[in-house]
Every structure is written in C-alpha cells, then in structure tokens.
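Q: Structure tokens for this one, please.
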Amino acid sequence: MAKYSPLLILAAVLLASSGCVRSQQPKPVFTTPGPIAPTVQSTPEFEALFTGYPKNEALSYAIASHKTDQRLPRIDLLFYSTWFLDGNPRVSMESTVDLLGEASDCRDVYQWAVQATHERSLSDAQLEEVRQALSTLPKSGVHPPLRDLLIVSFRLHEHWETRTYDKSALPASLQRIYHLTGAPLSGSSESTPQRTTADITKWKTRKMMEDLDIPAIKAHSEKLVTAAGGKTLDWLPYIDRETPRTQADLTARTLILNALVNIAYGAPITVIKKWIADNGLTSHLSSKERALLEKRNEDLTDQEKANLHWSMEAVWALIWAGGLTGDIPIDAPVSNTMASLLPNLQKNESSAAFTRKVRLRPYTELYPMLDLYYRAHWSTENARLHGGSSGKISGDIIMERRKALEWLMDSTSDWDDVEMST
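A: Here is the predicted structure, written as tokens:
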C-alpha cells in the first residue's frame, strides 16, 4: 500500500500528538458536582504560586494548562497534575482523572511529543475515594525547588482550584490519589528516549507540513495535470512524507545516476566504476547498481540499457531539487542544458564543482512538486490501464522523475524498490 493519508487522517494524527491530556474530547457528563469551572484562572493567588520560578516558554506552557482550559477541557475533568522530570520544565509528567473515573498519565516533551501514555478505569469506590482525598487537600505551602514542584488542579465544590506542593513531602491525601491512579511520582531522564537526528528532522518536517496549504497544493497540481491533457481523481489521497533526505544524499545520488547514464551511451563500465570510486561514491550505490558495475558492457541486457537511458529523467528531477534549474514541467522533456550542469566524465571531471553548486530546495518546495508528479503518475497509469489518453504527459518520464522525488522525500526508501503506488 502507498503511504498516503487523507487530510482528515493527517489532522487526526497531528491532533493526537498534541498531548495525552490536551487531545481528549469532552465525554458525556451524567453527574456534575457544580457548574463548569471558569475558563481562566487569573487571580493574584494563582500567579503567586509561580513567583520565583525561571521564566521560559516550556514552564509557561505547563502553567497555562492549569490556568486556562483552552488546551485542557475541564467540562468533564476532576483532577489534573503536573511535575517536571529532573526539574526540566521541557519534560512534563502529567496525570488526570475525569468525572467518570477514567485516569491517564503521560510524559509531555515540550514542542516534541507525548510519550509513555497510560490509561486505566477507576471503580466507583476508587473514584469516590479520589473525591474524598481532594476535599481534604491542604492549601499550598512554601515554594519548593522546580525539581520537587507538583502542580495540582481539581474541582472543589463549585470552582476550579490550583495548588502547588513539594513532591518530596506530599500530604497523605495526595499520595493516596497517586496510588489509586497508578500515575508515577518519580523518574529519571535516563529513561526518556533521546532525540536522534532523524527524530528532529521528522519533527521539523511535521511542523513545515502544518504550514502547507495541502488542499491548495492538490488543486494546483490537478490544474497543471488537466492543462497538460491528463485526467485527475478528486479523491486520490494526500501524500504524507516526514523523513526527507539530506543535501549530501541528493548530491551523491545525482552523481551516481549521471555516471550510470553514461553507460547507456557507450561509456566503458570499468571507467564509470573507477570514477565512482575516485569520487567517494561507492558506498552510495544500491545493490542492483553494484551488480551492474560488475558486468561487461556487452553483457548488459536491452532492459538494463533502457533503464539506464531513462535514468536521465531521475537526474533531471534531482537537479531541480538541488536548485540548479528553475522548473521541471510534467509535459516537457529534459532540457538540453542538463549536461552542462553535471561533471563531464569523458574529461574525467571530478564531482567537486557540482557538489559546491547544489543547494537542496526547502521542504515547502519539494512537497508540491512531488504532489504534482504523484497526480500526473496516476493520470498516466489510468490512461495505460483503461486505454485512454494522458495528453502531453509521458508515463515513462513521469515515473522516473517521481521515483527520484519519492526517494528524496523518504529517507527509509531503497533506490532499488521505491514505493510508487497510485
């Protein structure tokens, strides 16, 4: 199956990642112990709870969750607490209990992800015990250090109350609530998954996707396909790519494909293999490419020669992605300027000059181009399968260029087996 997701699914995924507490939808409330809590707690007493603590976005974000219900609907909430792993305000350990006895806890890493979510249902007796414990909570005491700060918000009769406690010396009633819900009261960042480079790239990409007007991109792609004589499918899903490759990946793949294309025009395989090795590209070869370079020119099949020839279309797409040409229309062939942009292997030119010129386009440019070629590919496949016309759009050209763009936008893909479903 292709990794395409309808926009509604994408929106649901993004919403679900916004917080184990903050993503909950209000549940039916059958019994309410008083009016709904006020939307905002902005009293001198509330603000005084947090004087003396460092001013930063992460801590303000956590405090705001207790101050306003914009991120945390209180219509069905009974109890909500927050403490910070190792005193780091970027890592909030949160727990809730709602009016129906549904308890949850999670680790909310600021502007990154919600992790280690747990949910459980309390019995009626346990829920009543939580209510009783809340009614006996003492007032806030001294300001504990941030590593021991526990913020607790809860329903008290007809209003929403927020108090702070020292986690290292909790009152017995609060300890009882944590025991009943099973939420953690201790932990170490050593057990918190660390962000890898791939994780950070994926997060940044997701943030960029949020800024894209994906329906408008789809509409523009369909307009271009139609203008070129192709057909479109309105319910063809949106694409979802979160792990684009690096500029170094793009550069190496372009250079390798350019070298291999030369074989289709009679360049000795031994010469091409040596050029690839001399320019430090051998490690970037795919399995099939390695096998091909072990052959003699006269042993290449007609299909292998044809594949090498068509690879120039993939090179053209990657040249565009590297910022070396202005556009790659779906109904236009490779420009006759392409060869001048690449190393001349007949003269044994190195890859250095080309590498210096490459500038990977931003995700906000790559995504729309991939979307266009994805929809153009559907048009050509539809024409092939049903005997219709795809206008001025060539299926072979579109397929090769789309393959390059798909590979570039998905670092988990294998060049020998890029997902090309429509």
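A few notes: The mean pLDDT is 84. The two ends are 9 Å apart (CA to CA).
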